[in-house]
Structure of Putative membrane-bound dehydrogenase domain-containing protein:
Amino acid sequence: MTSSSYYIYMEKEIIAPYYTIMNYDNNRSFFPVVIVIAACLFVVQACESEESEQPLGKTCLTLSAGLQNAPVDDPGEAYNYKEFSDLPTPPLPPEQALERFELEEGFRIELVAHEPMLTDPVAMDIDADGRLWVIDMPSYLPEHDRSEAETIPLQQVPESRVVILEDTNGDGKMNSFRVFVEDLKMPRAIKVLNDGILVGEPPNAWFIQDTNGDGKGDSREVVYRTYGDPMVDNVQNMPNNFLWGMDNWIHSSHDNVESLRRIDGEWHTRNFKRLGQWGMNQDDWGRLYSATNTSPLQTHLVPHGYSERHPGFEVSNGINVNIARKAPMWPAHPTGVNRGYRVGQVVREDGTLKTATATTAPVIYRGDQFGEKYRGNAFTPEPAGNLIKRYILEADPAEIEAEADFAYEGREFLTSTDERFRPINMYNAPDGSIYVVDMYRGLFETALSLTDHLREYAVEQGLHKPVGEFGRIWRIVREDRDIDYETPEFSMLTPSEVVEYLQHENGQLRDQAQQVLVQCSPPEVVSRLEEMTAAGDAKADWTRLHALWTLEGFDRSVYGQGELSRTALEALNDPHPRVRASGIRILERSMDRNSSEIFPRLEELAEKEQAAYVRLQLLASLGESDTGRALRLIASLLDEHADSPYFREMALSGAYQREEQLAGILRREYNWGSERGEAHAQLLNQLSEAGEQRSGTDLSHLTQAQRERYEKGRPLYRTCMACHGKNGEGQSGVGARLSGSKWVQEDPEALVRIVLQGFSGRAEERGEEMTSVMPGHDYLSNEDLAAILTYIRNAWDNKASPIDPETVREVREETRDKSGTWSPDELRDVIK
C-alpha cells in the first residue's frame, strides 16, 4: 500500500470489536485492512504493548546490526615463530607466553585474540553487541637505529587499521575478523557509536560510517581538526583514548584537547583541562582517571569543565592530581628500561624496575566477576616492567579528595617474564572480566626519547626486531567464580529490555545501556527512566545516577527541558551525593529561565548540604548563571569555605564580568577585608584587578550587541592561549603575535579564512620566524568564531571592526571546497 491517509471506522455488529483501517491511495480507491483487536474499545493505541517494540538494531543501532550479515575477512597466515627463535629474547607463541604469567592467587589470564588478527594494537572499544573494535599502529618505530627526524616519515605511512573482532561461538576467543578501515596514520582513539565510529588520528577526529552494509568504512567526515597539534611529531604528546563519560561527553587524555558530543546530528566541543597522558577511565560515579609515565593514577578532584571560563582566572587546584605512589614496582625479572643506567633510582642493583617509568592507561574495575572486594580498585599497567599493579582506591563520593595505595607490598597483581609483553591499555569487559591490550613488541619507546642505553640493550637481547607483526588481547578472570562469555547483544533487544541493564552489577553494561539509550532516545522508556531516578533507596545508587544522565542525554524533542529540570530538581533530594551533584549540574541550563522555581531549592540545599563535593558542584554551577541571586549564593558558599583553594578558584572562575559585584557583596554582607585574613584580602584584590583590567579596554566603537559578542569571545580565547599567549603576544616559532597584527585588524574575511582552514608558511605579516602550521578550526560554530575574532580584533592594543556570524557563514560557504591551509600569497590575493 502507498498512501499517507487512513480512515478508521468501527464494525459495531461484532461482539469482539475490531477496526477496519481504510487506505486511501492516490487513485481514490480503497483497500481495506482489517485488524481484529480484542478488548480494545474505540482507540487503536490502547492495544499497543511491549510486543510492538522493535529491536534497536532495526531502528537505531544500524552499525552493529548491519555487521550481522556483513562478510568477514581472512586475517592471513599463521605466524612462523621459528623464524626468530634464535634471538636471545624471541617472540613467543601465545600458548608459551601464557606460561610466563604469574597472577594473584585465584586469578588466571586467557587469550582472546592474537596475530595475525592484530599488529601492534594500541586501543579499542566494545560495541553494543560485544564486538571488539581495535586500532593498531604497525608503523610505530619501524627501525631502532634511526634519528627522530628519520623516523617521523617512516611512521607516517597510512597502514594503521580499525579491525573488528567477534566471538561467534561463545568460547571466549575471537574467531571472526573484519577490517573496517586500513589506511590510517598513527591513530590512537576510537569510540563506536550507533551509526559509525569516531577515530582520533591526530590532528583530526574522524566520524567514519559504513553506508552500504558491507562492513567497511566508506564515508569519512572530519568533526574536530585539533585532536593534537599537527606540528608535534612525538606520539607521546598526542591526545588518546576516547571515553564516553557519565555526563554524555566524550573525553580524551593529554593536553589541549576538548571534549566532544553529538547533539541533533551536530558535533559540539567543550573545554576540558588536561588529565593524564595515557588512557581515560571512570568509576561508578563518573569521576575520571588517567595516568602519566611516572604517575600511575591521576584524577580531577574538582568538577571538570569549569577551568577556562574566566580569561583571568583558571582552576588549577584539584586538576590532574596524582593520587598514587609511583614506587616501588615489583617486576618478576630484570628488564630493559630507558633510563636503566640510573641504578638505585630507576632500577635496582639486580636490574629490576624500581619505580614507575612508563605507566599507561589504568582501569577502574567495575565488573561483577571478580567479587565485591575488587570493585572500585584501580589496575595500572607498567609495560616497561611487564606488569600490572593493583591499587586500593579510596574515593568517597561525598568528598573532594581521593587517594590510592598499593594492594600489596613486595609483589604485583600480574607479572610476566616475557619481555615482549607490553600491556598498554585495559578495559572493563561485558562478561565482568578485564581486557588487556598487549602491543607485544620489544622496543616501544619513541625515537625522540630512546636512550643509547636502551637501544644497546634491545640489540643485545634481540628486542629490536621484528616490529609491527604482533599483538594480543588477554582476559583476566577470577577462577572460582562463573563467567559467561555470551554477553548481551543490545541491537537484538527492545528499548524496554535495554533500560533494565541500568540496574546491572556490571558497570560496563550499565555504561553501554546508557550510551545506547542516549543515542536512540526511545520515548517508550521515558516513564521507566523517571521511575528509576525517583526510586530513592529502592534502586542502587548507580542505577539512579545512570537513569538521570540518560534522560539528560535524550533528544529534547523526546524529553523536554522542562521535564528534565523537574527531574533534576527531584534529584536534589536523593540520598546519594553524586546524584545530588548531577542534579545541580543538569539544572545549569534552566537556572536563569526558571529561577523562581530553581533558586529556592538551591538556597535550601546550600543551607543543609553536608557533602563537600556537592557544595563545590553547587558553587561551580552557580557560576553559569547571570542572576544576582546566584552571585549572592556564590558569596555565601565562598564565605563558608574561604580557606579552601578549591572553593576560592571555583568562585573566581564563575565571577566573569561580575568581579566587582562579588567583591562588594563579600565586603558588605560578610565583612570581608584585610582583618579577615590573608586569603580573604588576596581574593578581593584578584577580583578588583580583574574588573579594572577589563574596564581599561576601549570598546566605544562597538554597539551593545557587539560588546556582548566581544565578552563572549574572551573566555573562548583561552583555548588559543597555548600558542598565541594570554595577551596576544605569541610564542616564537609556535604561535603568531596577535596584538598589533595587520592580518588580525585589517580585512576581516582574510582573518576568517585563516581560522577556518588554517595557515602555513613564512610571512612578514605573521613573523618571519614562524614555521608552525596554524590548524583550521572549521568545527567551531559561526557564533563562536565571530565572538573569538571580535575579541582578538579589539583586545590588547587592537582596535578594529567586529565580525558577525553572518560574515563567518558567508566565508565558510565560499571556501567550503578549499583543501589544505592558506599560503601567504593566497591570503594577499584575498586582501587585494
